[in-house]
Amino acid sequence: MEEKKLNEKESLELITQMIRQSRKNIGTGSGNRFLLYGYLAVVLAVVVFALVRTTGSSMWASAWFLMFAPFIYTTVYDRKHRPTVITYTDRMIDETWKVIGTLFVITVLTMMILGYALGSVNFGLMMPLALIYCGIGTSITGLVIKDSVLAYLPLFGLVFAIYMLMTLPALQHVPATWHLYFGISFLIMMVIPGHNLNAKYHK
């Protein structure tokens, strides 16, 4: 069977169609997915901040592990509701978030192992790292589907991550306000871009 060679116009049309299909797939799923993670982070930020501030115990910060719950839910959902057409762009986005998810698992396991070996573990470092991981993943997704809000707005959310990394060495414990900063970052990185993505899809 002879392969058909595409001219420049046909190649551009094919690329445009692939991006359009990926935008459609993301609009029907991942736009809401950004909102799922974003709103959960905002709610947890307020709840954890209030509990830590009122009780004085940083143990309430362990509630952030609930952020893994949407990952389990979306994994099961994806297996049951896969798009009829999966483009190379879709696969690229999926693989990007698999790498991000793997980074989370490796980071948590490494902290636990080193914490056990050293006799103590400080998960405070997990907050800025989580912001960096999610910010990069969201920006890459935006670049792939050519959505400027999704691509560049998350970078502003990384300001708090930089602040945390710069001040962490001088702190003996994580301030309660960090939880609010974390929630604000997710509001910038995921909630606003998620609503914008859904609005574009509905149009």
* Cα-atom radius of gyration: 19 Å
Proportion of residues in β-strands: under 5%
Helical content class: over 70%
Mean pLDDT over all positions: 82
Choose one word for the global shape: elongated
- The secondary-structure element order is HHHHHH
Number of strands: 0
- Tally of helical runs: 6
Tell me the count of domains: 1
Distance between the termini: 41 Å
What are the low-pLDDT stretches, counting only 5+ consecutive residues below 50? none
Largest sheet descriptor: none
Q: Give the oligomeric state of the chains in this entry, treating copies of one chain as homo and distinct chains as hetero.
A: single chain
- What structural category characterises the helix and strand content? mainly alpha
